[in-house]
Amino acid sequence: MTGSIFYWIAFVVTALAAVFAAVMVITRRNPIHSAMFLVLNFLCIAVLYLLLNAQFIAIIQVMIYAGAIMMLVIFVIMLLSVEEEERRRKIPVPLAQMLGMVLIFILFAQLIFGVVVKVLPGEQGEFSPERIAELGDVKTIAGLLFTKFLFPFEVASIILLVGIIGAVILSKKER
Amino acid sequence: MIDLVWLIPLFPAVGFLFNGLIGKWLDLDKRVVGSVACTALGLSFLFSILIFFSLLKLPPEARAAVPDKVLFDWIVSGDFKTVIGYKVDPLSIVMALVVSGVSFFIHVYSVGYMHDDPGFTRYFAYLNLFVFMMLTLVLANNFLLMFVGWEGVGLCSYLLIGFWFERDAPANAGKKAFVVNRVGDFGFLLGIFLIFAHLGTVGFNEVFAKAPSLDTATVTLITLMLFVGAAGKSAQIPLYVWLPDAMEGPTPVSSLIHAATMVTSGVYMIARCHLLYSMAPISMAVVAIVGAVTALYAASMGLLQFDIKRVLAYSTISQLGYMFLAVGVGAFSAGIFHLMTHAFFKGLLFLGAGSVMHAMSGELDMRNMGGIWKRVPLTFLTFLVATLAIAGIPGFSGFFSKDEILWQAFSSNHGHLYLWVVGAVAAGMTAFYMFRLLFVTFLGPCRASEEVKKHIHESPPIMTIPLMVLALLSVIGGYVGIPHILGGRNFFHEFLAPVLGGAPQGTEHTAFSLVRPVFASGGAAVGEGVNMELLLMGVSVAVAIIGICIAFYLYIWKTEVPKRLGERFKTIYTIVFNKYYVDEIYEVCFVNSTKKLGTFLWRRFDDGVVDRSVNLVAELMAWLGSVLRRIQTGYVQSYALGIILGAVIIIIFLIR
Amino acid sequence: MPASVTPLYFFVVSALIFAIGAAGVLIRRNAIVVFMCIEMMLSAVNLTFIAAAHYLNSLDGVLMVFFVMTVAAAEAAVGLGIFVLLFRGRKTIRVDEINLLKW
Q1: Taking chain C, what is the end-to-end CA distance rounded to the nearest angstrom?
Q2: What ipTM describes this predicted complex?
Q3: Same domain for B509 and B419
């Protein structure tokens, strides 16, 4: 399946769209525009997940990332009624940002090097796509979640609790 | 019983802690403080006596071989091991008896003498501490513990000489004593180091067992270093200068420390190490010569002093010279014998001087005294007994001990005629200046002021009873050492023989026999020796009597003569009266240069180098901080840059 | 194309999006946009995990992503709350005007 034409086309289109959206996110002056393009980016990544046979995660990505988090962000942007940023041409680029760019380029190069040149280690698990299809995707994930990953699950619940409490406290009006 | 020897130094230690800590803190009544101090000493003395009798129960050969009482291992480091241990043998028990006994009576006397002093508690704390240290010194079974006691008595000497430290003179005298002692201690330490380096141990038993393996040069060096220490502590040339100044302290202190006990530790040390000294004839010669010369030199200075205590101080130095002369010629038990009798009569002389000062409202100069014998009869009588003893008049203890020394100086293998001559002349001078002291202070017309005359009174019993006890000892103390030719049996010598050896030992070659074979050994055959000994005895008695007569002539009969003689021989008089200007010479040669060195090191090195480098380090840190501070900008994006930088670096290592 | 889409391509895409997000973090001055770029970086990492899980026939990567999303959600809530608070105090959310994170 992964070698078929359809797969390739889907992958290339989605990947290009994701990258394009990412670039737009960082270059748009209006923060609302950036947020919109970020939503597009998340959706493209959700499609990529589908291509990778992770249907459950794809749905979760759309629901949580593109849905909850981005909604929150847009809400805050509108609450704070942020203006557009000034045109960059008036302000010279600081040295630190040039250095940052260089570093990021190096980082990217490293990552590519690591992936292309080196052989990736890792042992094969037992959940081939066929088997997952056989058992049921969500069912297996849930099974693992509550057995092998039980402790992280509990910790994650505490993190969420902390998040809720934090959000409440931070937004309290001072008396 | 012998096992309990460790209690002997313990009692005064407890007394010190009690008086020093609790006495001061609670400001206890003087009677309590005095009782505690005297009781501690009394118990020490009692135990010394008991252990002495236990020792007597043993057969003579066994007495020197009693195993040491070891309390615990003190230092165990690699090959070096030393213990806290006490040795019970005739020598140490004699010393313990003398120290604890005389100290006890002086403590009792001090309760009366120091009665009005505000530092009463402090005084008794220091005094107990001193006796504790001294007993540690004499009872120790190894060099290191002995050195602890050695240093301790030096410290207490400093504390007690400078007891009235609010005044300049006592404070300076205390400092001087400590510093000069230190010079001697340095030599002592070098000696101990050499011993350890060559023999690997510092315990007495082990050192003396292994000693024969040393070669003569090493032993000579060791013994000379040890003698430097002895010279410092026991005020021989050239380290005697602290003793006359030490008279600034309270008089009972002078009596205890600078007559009876501390200054004798050098003699004890040499006697203890007699085995080492016997192996080094050159050292013996050095000791004997220094002792003899000091005896004469100090006596000469005592002839002209007016301060009662100064006269007695020079007399002490001179008598110590005799003791060193004795051990220098191999007569170790004679030296200890004189140590004991000297403790009695010199201790008594100082206490008597204190009694006189008490009567004369603190006056010290004999020119302002005179004719008081009727008003202070007990003081006068006991003083007279002591003076007779020190002059070496037959019947009194000093005669027996001094005479034995003079005889051995002449006849021993290590002895020499000239040593005897010096000793005899010094004996004559001793008799002279002691009776001069007696006559001018107690007899003749009274030259004191009216105020003082009114208050002349005998001291209270708490002061006079110790005087009388010591006077008694000054008389009968000699009878334990009656020499053979006078029909006696020298118990003292016999008692110490297991430790110190029998007749003075000598190697084939003594120092003198190499130089003057003629007079090397003055008494060869027994018959000839007997007559010689009696002859010399007679000569020394005669010399003493001549000295007394001259003193009588000059100070009772024709009292204007001394002044005229002084005018006639003005230069000599001035030189001797000013103690040969030795103090001044030392000041110029040693003190000034040391002060300059100290100031230089302080300014240039301590301030300049050490302080500067510390400041430099601090400045460096401050500079570094100011540079690194700039990383913390407060802007999140710069921190993000840092994170990415870190990530890049880490990834470099991860994709290797 | 005969060759299959190996996980390699997914990793490349993910690295690209990650780098772009990092660049955004350093460049943008609006704090909220910076936050969005951070979310984008997290998302890119998620992609890596899923790709590896697919490649290794394992579900561990999927579970990892699960937790990453949880944390991202909680972080979004708290972070945006902080932004609101900052705006209330300083009337600005430009990162080059807020330098409180220091001694």
Answers
A1: 59
A2: 0.91
A3: yes
